[in-house]
Each structure stands twice: as C-alpha cells, then as structure tokens.
Design a protein that fits this description.
The chain is α+β, with helices and mostly antiparallel strands. It contains 14 helices and twelve strands.
C-alpha cells in the first residue's frame, strides 16, 4: 500500500511541478499546448495512481507478498524517474510529457494484466477448493515443513479441526492420529516424486469416545515443486468401513450357507448309499428311506428359495404386486393348510378376529408366506397338546394392520431374542426338536420391513410360549 501511495504522490508531484513551470515561463499558445499535454498526463497519472493504490490495498488484504514486492519496485521506479520538465523548452517539455504519458500507459496496461492474472489465479484457487470440498474423501495437503496448506471439509470433520484456523500450522498440532502423521512425514522425507504409499488404517473414535471405529484406505503421495523437487504431500483418506462390513457379511453368509447345506446333503448321501448297499431289505424300510431323502431334499430346496428371495429383496429387484389384502382371510387359509401338521401333535389352531375389515395395500403372496412361516415355527416349537392362535386387528394409532401369532411353546431365552431375525440363526438347544434352515425369520423381516415398510417383533418367556407380531401400513403407496 505504501508503494502504491508513493507512486501516486510521485506522479501528482510531477504534475504540480510542470504546472508551476508553465505558469512562470510560458504564455499564450505555448502555455495552452503545454497545459493540454499536462492535462492528458495528469488524468492518466491519476488513473494509474488510483489503480496502483487499489491494487496495493487488495494485494495487502490478500497477503500477496509477491504482488506487494512488485508494486513497491514499480513505485520506487516511478518516484525516481519522474518527467524532467524543469528547464526545458515548450516542445522539449511536451515531448518529455508524451514519453512519460506513454510509459504510464504501459505501466497501467501491465497493472491491468497483472490484476487479470491474479483474479484468474484466485478464481482457480476457489474453484479447486470447491472441488475438494465436494469430495466425500478427506484430503489434506502439507508443505515441505509438514505444515497444513489446504484441507477439505471432510478432513476437518473426520480429524476434528477447523480448516480456516489450521492453515500454516504443523500437522503435529492439528492431527491426533500418530500413524497418519508418521505416514505423511515418511513419504515427504523420502524425497521421491514417484513415491506413493497406500495403506489400510483404522481410526479410533474421537476424544469423547463416541462412534465406532472406521476403516480407511489411505493414499499418501509427494507433490512436485519446480524449485526444490518435493514441494509437499497430499493425503487422501477414503472410508471403506461399509465395504469391509459387506465383505465380512458375504464371507459369513458363504460359511453359514455351506454349513447348513452340508447337513441335509450328508443325510441324503448316507441314505442313498444304504439303498445301494441293500441295507433296506423290505419295502417298508425302503419307503422310510425314501421319505427321509425327500424331506432333506425339500429342506435344501426351501433353503435355496429363501436365500434367493432374501437376495432379491436386498438387491431391490423383487417384484411386488400390491393389492388390497384381507389379512383375516390370509390367516384362515394358512390355518387350514397347517391343520394336518397340527393334528399329528394334537394341537389346536385358531384365528381370532373382530367384526371389522382388516385390509392393507400389500403383496398377497408375500403376506401368505410371512404368516405361514410364523405359524409353521409355532407348531414346530410347541409340544403336543399346545395351542397356536393367529390374531388380526387394526392399529389405528399407526394406521396399520397388526397380525400376531401366539403359541404355548418352549419360549425363547432372553439372550437369543435379539438374534432371532439374523440369517441362519437357530437356538442351539432347540435344533434337535425341529429341522430348519434358519432363514425363515430373516425372510419375514425383509418382507415386512424392507418391502412393505412395516415393523416386526417378538415377545417371549421361557416355558410360557412366544408371540411374534408384524404390522403392515394401510396404504404403503409403494414407498
């Protein structure tokens, strides 16, 4: 700013000097000609001086050290090279003023060009910052002294620092993770531009201890500098927590599916070998073997169907045909279908409804499958002589149809209630009582909650029975 002021004062002072000389020693047409030349010079000088002052103020506000040094030099040059008009004739003074006017015009053009370049550079910097802030990945840029030069909003949120106040501060003061700081320093100290380090790193929760650990794919690379080779380091942290969870889920699914499929396939293979070895000499024994083989084959088929249905729902490609479903009628159909199975255990099946209409927009086949799964489980885990009751009612508070399946069975241990709807989960002590795939309840949860946006739950007491329930909104509107 002082340099710009000096330039303006030098130019203005030169103008005053010329005017004094012209008034004292010139007259008539010569004075008018000189005054005209001075007028052009004074106007141009004022414009140049004002532009230099404004530029100096802007540069100072932006802490553009390079620009400030440049304009300081220009101001000094202008102050020392004013137009030597004193002691000159009229023509010589006019020529000197014209030369100085041209020099000022060139200076003004240079100033305008520098201003345009600086404006473009500032716009490009803001554009780059906007790009970085739009990224979900955290980005940190440090200089050769391990001080922060740039960071996006994601990095600030992740590492817990204020981006504006953290610039030019050492990373030791703004980054709390020791591993991350060590990676940045190691890559910078290597001094190799082609050096790029990529590691998988887990960040612990913040100082408050809130939240879970997050896994990140961390990429650290050197930045080039024309003057000293390595100018700094850029660090990118990409959140891969969800990817690792999905990978682990896939691994667990394959392991569990293999285990569940192995049991029925082993039974089928064993009975087929006995038939081949003629270990069933009479027709009754062979028929028994055939029934066991068919039952295990049906179990494998149900498991595959359930896995495919769950996979389609999770992938969002299941086809849903919503109609006005009467849940009282669906429950009655399920009870009628399961009566033969209940009679073998001397159990009573019943439907409890009121006089109202119990309908909602849903896929009827899926609703039938949900009720069937719940009633089938109730029959499996209820001793002989027990009861299974399907109740249908309206829940006006949530504008939903509420369906519950209650039994007088074994009940569910408290530590197992929270795991009932997980894939392949089965209560260890109950596995000998009934065969199953461990996928039925998981499919029920997906159909009710994922497809129909309802709710599913269970309440149970060991030795006193269980009550499974689900709700379906009256009008889901395909949400």
């Amino acid at each position: 700013m002082r340099a710009a002021g000096s330039l303006w004062m030098a130019v203005a002072g030169a103008g005053v000097t010329v005017l004094a000389a012209a008034g004292a020693g010139l007259a008539g047409a010569q004075f008018l000609e000189t005054a005209s030349a001075f007028g052009r010079f004074a106007l141009l000088s004022a414009a140049v001086g004002g532009a230099a002052l404004a530029w100096g103020l802007w540069s100072l506000s932006r802490t553009q050290a390079g620009a400030l040094r440049m304009f300081t030099a220009i101001g000094r040059a202008a102050a020392s090279e004013g137009p030597p008009v004193l002691g000159l004739g009229c023509q010589e003074a006019d020529s000197a003023l014209r030369a100085w006017s041209e020099k000022c015009e060139r200076l003004s053009a240079s100033l305008r060009e520098a201003e345009v370049r600086l404006s473009i550079s500032e716009a490009e910097r803001r554009y780059a910052e906007e790009i970085l802030n739009s990224l979900r990945d955290a980005v940190i840029v440090t200089d050769p002294f391990n001080e922060l030069t740039m960071a996006n909003e994601s990095a600030g949120r992740l590492l817990g620092f204020d981006r504006t106040g953290a610039v030019s501060r050492p990373i030791d003061q703004i980054i709390g993770d020791d591993t991350l700081k060590r990676l940045i320093k190691e890559v910078r100290q290597s001094g190799v531009l082609s050096r790029q380090k990529r590691v998988e790193h887990t960040l612990a929760p913040g100082p408050s201890g809130e939240g879970a650990k997050q896994a990140f794919d961390v990429t650290v690379a050197c930045l080039p500098d024309p003057r000293q080779g390595v100018g700094g380091v850029v660090t990118i942290l990409r959140d891969i927590t969800r990817e690792k969870e999905i990978s682990q889920m896939k691994s667990d699914f394959v392991s569990q599916a293999s285990h569940e499929l192995r049991t029925p396939l082993s039974a089928i293979n064993a009975y087929v070998e006995m038939l081949i070895d003629s270990e069933a000499p009479d027709e009754a024994s062979r028929r028994e073997f055939y029934q066991i083989i068919k039952g295990e084959a049906d179990r494998v088929s149900r498991m595959i169907d359930n896995m495919l249905n769950i996979s389609r729902i999770e992938a969002g490609i299941v086809q849903v045909e919503r109609t006005e479903v009467d849940f009282a009628k669906v429950a009655a159909e399920v009870i009628e279908t399961m009566q033969p199975q209940a009679k073998t255990k001397n159990m009573s099946l019943s439907v409890k409804t009121g006089p109202l209409i119990y309908t909602a927009q849903a896929d009827r086949d899926m609703m039938y499958q949900v009720v069937m799964n719940l009633v089938s489980n109730a029959i499996k885990y209820t001793p002989e002589g027990g009861r299974v009751t399907v109740s249908v009612e309206n829940d006006d508070a949530s504008r939903s149809v509420l369906v519950s399946v209650s039994d007088t069975g074994l009940g569910i241990p408290p530590d197992a209630v929270g795991k009932l709807f997980e894939k392949f989960f089965r209560i260890e002590n109950y596995k000998r009582l009934a065969k199953g795939t461990g996928l039925g309840l998981n499919l029920v949860k997906h159909i009710v909650e994922t497809v129909h946006h309802g709710k599913v739950g269970v309440s149970s007491q060991v030795g006193m029975g269980s009550r499974f329930w689900f709700t379906i909104p009256y009008d889901d509107q395909g949400r």
